[in-house]
Amino acid sequence: xxxxxxxxxxxxxADRTRRDLYRAVVAVGPSTATQLAAxxxxxxxxxxxxxxxxxxxxxxxxxxxxxxxxxxxxxxxLVDATDWIDATRVAWDRRLVRLRDLLER
Amino acid sequence: xxxxxxxxxxxxxxxxxxxxxxxxDDPDLLTAxxxxxxxxxxxxxxxxTDDGILRIVTDRGWAGEELRWRWxxxxxxxxxxxxxxxxxxxxxxxxxxxxxxxxxxxxxxxNWSGDLLALGAVLLAGSLVRT
Lengths: 105, 131
Known about the structure:
A: two-stranded antiparallel ribbon; 69% helix; B: Alpha-D-Glucose-1,6-Bisphosphate, Chain A, domain 4; 3 helices; globular
């Protein structure tokens, strides 16, 4: 688990609009900022800024196609993020079992 | 608005609240269930959890029925989170313990870890990269 990468993913997805955009790119496939803005009440420039944050976290990748920039979703960075959540839960499960054993013996 | 990533766990213990409080405050008892716990003179603590990681515990204190602290890896303070343990006495002398751990960098706000896990599950179950 790469802590810096996990932080970038959490920071990128801590914003509701970015989660919405990420979901949209996942669901629809390669999308442009213009297409994503057209379906929302935000400007193309704002969408582009959000996509840049998602891109820094590795959650989307961009490539030029003619005059457009297409954004494609990547799930790989989510693995580290969900691993943190899973590992934290498993660790507390173990601790709470030991606490129960300690208090109820 | 930034929102938090929080994991929440809950357990009902067949023990009175004062005994549970002792298990949360006494270094020897903490060692028995969290990991090798040492209080330091500067009001911080260290704990080596069973994953072998040494963590530095800071800002530890009770706020009403809730014990809170922050902890980070001793060798990497960027890996930080906040722990909140709330006690709730139950009928019959038992005590409910609710543990929340939040990535410290996120700050307060609605929890979306379930959202993230669901999204991750959907993505990871299918093709990882859509082209």
